[in-house]
Amino acid sequence: MIVPAARVIRLGLLLTVALAVPALAVAVGLRGGKGVLSAGLGIVIVVAFFTISKLAVGAVARRAPHHLLAAALGTYAVKIVLLGALLVAIQDSSALDLPAFAWSIFGGVFVWMGAELWVATHTRVPFYDPERPGAWDPARRPPAR
To answer: Which superkingdom is the protein from (predicted)?
Structure first.
């Protein structure tokens, strides 16, 4: 069993929006229009990065739990490649303010990870499958010789 994805996504979005309001205000005050655009893009990237994982892994967990590890690693690998390509593409962009972009990503990641940690520690999800059919029952042990 995994922690329900919907709870993490809801709390992550809520906290990221709560971070976005002051982050965008600081960005416009310190860096102007380019800062707001950059900070907004950074926050959108964080939300997309984590939400895609939760949705993909949650869908696989419901349909084919035996493929869960492959799905998690596969989505992570694809996201990292796409993120790397995006960062290489924008590294010389004059339309973005890289410090505002980087700080918004930094803050967004910490806020989202905090949401994931909070949901994981406050949700009662067993680390085992409690009623798996055909599971071994210690009460049905053969008698000792």
So the answer is: Bacteria
- The residues, ordered by sequence, that sit 6+ positions from 21 with a Cβ below 8 Å of its Cβ are none
Helix extents (H) in the chain: 5-63, 68-90, 98-122
Residues of the chain with pLDDT under 70: 1-3, 126-143, 145
- What DSSP string describes 45-75? HHHHHHHHHHHHHHHHHHH-GGGHHHHHHHH
Distance CA 34, CA 105 (A): 15
pLDDT tens-digit map of 18-55: 999 999 999 999 999 999 999 999 999 999 999 998 99
pTM of the model: 0.79
**Do 8 and 121 touch, CB atoms closer than 8 A?**
no
Q: How far apart are CA 51 and CA 20, in angstroms?
A: 16
Under 8 Å between Cβ of 45 and 96: no
The H-or-E segment that residue 125 falls in is none
- The single-letter DSSP state of residue 131 is T
Tracing tokens 């010789």 back to the chain, one arrives at: 145
